[in-house]
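Below: protein 1.
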Amino acid sequence: MPYAKLMAAPVRRRVVPVLCMITLMAMLTACSRKDSGGDGAARVNGKKILRSEVEKYYKNQTAGTPEPPQGEQATSLRLSILKELIDNEIMMQRAEKLGLLATEEEVDGKINEVKAPYTQEEFEKRLKEKNLSLEDLKRDMRRNLTVDKVINKEIKSKISISDSDITNYYNQHKAEFNLIEPQYHVAQIVVTTQPGQVRNLKNDKAQSESQAKAKIQQILNRVESGEDFATVAMNYSEDPNTAENGGDMGFMPESALKQTDPGTRDAIARLKPGQISSVVPVAQGPGSRSIWGYRVIKLFTKELAGQRDLNDPRVQQSIREQLLQRREQLLKSAYYEVVRNEAKVENYLAQEVLKNSGQK
């Protein structure tokens, strides 16, 4: 073989792998660009979250709002929705590893519970109003049931409330159980029309009356769709005194109830234990027509007057539930932080917002 050909042959063998590598890198780059500018809003450990899914929840949460979000407000809501979808996907993947995914039977059973109060026509109408299909509802139910399973196994099952815990709480808060008048145990989610900062898990704050109206309607849509009231309150309530406790206001004496604004008083009076109110506007002050904010209220129980003894099963149950809820909320917040830190998340929508910032 001539010297030139002998030397050229190995070169050709080296060039082919290099060309293949360049082609592969180009393909990977193209795929990455497609995700960041295509149908992918985010990825969680390689699992794609579609932009169409973000839009579906966006339409659901803004359904019935008098003034749909615009501009930066709309973008902020989409980012918030995507963050929740990312958290949900993290929890779903966690559940799969633990073997805790909800079964079809469990999902169908929950759907039947939701449908029970309505005729088929009424049920389909409510789905349409919220821009949901039956498959959408089943997916949400499956996710909610699955996350509940994870929380039950990883958190609730590890919480223990002893008899001494209950006794100590009773002795330190005995006055709470001496009811000189009827009392209402209520929780609230508050949104104000005043701009500023707020402390809740999502650091979410309405900055105007129109934003407050939209936000409180989104909150009502959530809790009416079966989301946990306390969790929604911790995430979104703008009342610094109750948000960290899941909106729990404790027991409100009847005399205090009479001193509240008429809208709140009437709303609580109409509720039965376990029910949630519609949106309640709150005025700036007595006789004022200016709106300070809005609230959604949940009534847990109504207690008659009289001293409650520690041996009363209702007292023990009430204390146990309060202690369980406090510890559960604390551990849940910590748990979510841990699983987020362990996940690989690529948020393409957030990247685009940053990239486009300042551009006209």
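Below: protein 2.
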Amino acid sequence: MPQMSAPRDLFLHELGDILYAENVLTKALPKLAKESTDSELREGFEAHLEETKHHVTNLEKVFQAIGEKAKAEKCPGIDGIKAEHDEFISEEEPTPAVRDMFLTAAGARAEHYEIAAYSGLVTMAKGLGESKCATILNENLKQEKEALKKLETVSKRLAQNAK
């Protein structure tokens, strides 16, 4: 990667990073839904898949608004979260209850990552005078925060039931 010499370079890099992450999640969410035995959790993953597809579309709009081609850049953060999930599921052979609890935690880790990424992108877009981009990115940010709240609600219920 060439040296970043301007804030716009970082903005483009971060956009590519979250585009990659969202694309990974569009493939992972159906798998998470299938692994879930809790109906509320499964339905949440399925609903968030549709939102995630919309997030990809929004990111493409942001790239277009700044006159750039949408280009995903490998995201080690989301790859690490996915690898942790894959390893746990394959090596630990959790019971359905434990697996559902783990899936809420894995989903929360991904949401926290996305929230951090979108928060930074909104700030950068505003700083670069890209208010249209900031508005689009903020829409994704709000949906990620809502998804996290839903996961936390399910997680609390599962933890209470585990007592």
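Residues 96-127 form the longest helix (32 residues).
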